[in-house]
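Changelog-adjacent note: as of this version, every example in the card shows the full chain rather than a window. The one below runs 268 residues end to end.
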Amino acid sequence: MKTLFKKILSVLLAVLCFGGMFAAAADAPAAEGEFRPFQTSEEYDDTGKNILPADNTQPSQPGSVMNEYVVVIPANSTVALSEWAPAIKKGTFIAVKAMDTTPSGENLTFSLQSSGGGGFTYGLAEEQTRRIEATTDGNYRVTFHAVKAVTAKIKITIGEGLPAENEQVKGASNEYVVTIPAGGSVTLKAWAPALTKGTVVEVKAMDTTPNGAEFTCALRSSEGDSIAGTLTEEQSARMTAPNSGDYSITFTTAKAVTAKIKIVTDPK
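Full-length structure tokens:
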């Protein structure tokens, strides 16, 4: 009997001990876990703006294309894009686009140089594209320059399928892309009709880069006469041929402009 009583007492004591342990655990504060923010393949600054990848390299995010680069240009400096040095044949078109700049809206210039001699230098603004035709065979290099410090995401495309500067837009018989250098002039090679005296020619700036840029267009006759008009984005100018002859059209501007132009003869 005494033995049975001791066993029952031992069981009761064990139950009381375990109960005390659970109560203590319930009263104790829960341990704090380490907070880790969700990780993505992209990084953002305090404003929520995407931080561009490493300097002067191709973007490394999954799915990135092989013709996009990030270029960091210190103030009043020139940076060579060492990752871009293709062999290009004469007549091939090269398109250089500033997809994004930090700070937004900053301007920069780029220079293309060929080992076969010759080269080009153009200004470039955010979301602006410059298309250039290679004038020689050779290995090409590109450098970027900026007055103020700029980080830019650049896209460079090479290929015969690109629309040439100052040529017709594919699929549109009366639309053209014209790139006018600052302080310079461009004659639209693809437009050279024979007009009779009194023919009305309407020229419209369908789109310009930078937006809202102003430039002039001049009709010139093989007989030596000319007539000019001023254009801004979505604005049209109507000019009447002063005599019969073969005509050309020339665009001039104070600041660099790329414009999509529509030319209609005898508009209704």
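Structural remarks: DSSP finds one helix and 19 strands in the chain.
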